[in-house]
Amino acid sequence: MSIRVLLVDDQPLLRTGFRLILESESEVSVVGEAANGHDALAATRRLLPDVVLMDIRMPVKDGIDATREILAWARGAGQEVRVLVLTTFDLDEYVVEALRAGASGFLLKDVPPDELVAAIRVVADGAAIVAPAVTRRLLDRFADKLPSTREAPPPLLHRLTEREREVLRLLGRGLSNAEIARELVVSETTVKTHVGNVLTKLGLRDRVQAVVYAYETGVIRPGEGD
Asked: Transmembrane ranges (predicted)?
């Protein structure tokens, strides 16, 4: 089955360009477009896309609020919807807010067509396209500058064992499973089990969200481990 994509951008020419790229791929189907976050939420409810390709800066409702509302609706409706954020500027601080809102990653708008298609495939499969180490660098840079758009999440750290909390701290540093295994002197299989437990207990979707959570709850501070 093809991957159903919703295009969200306030610039019609950009939407047309992305549509031309994606519709040349047999496994991708563009099911709709929206020019702002408000319309994106309505279109998501109506069209049930697998992936929403989301701009950040738009009138009426920006991509950050739209991402948060779309994913909240999807959870409540039992739908699998992923958001892939697009930005004009590298290391845009609002990209971090989009990750906090639950986006699966981000790309620059001048991304080569083959990388755009590949990223949509990855996100549709449930993975993140921003490496945890990259997320960590973003948070290091912008953690103290971000506007607060919501209350902090409830601290669920008490659900974790001491070992799982240590794994969360190492995830927050952007370490891979192999690197965590070396740090803790355990097998990668054991690390994989711990990571799965951390994500499940904290209600997180992937490692990127684990990095964000580690910063938000003070498990790791900007610059720690450099």
From this structure: none
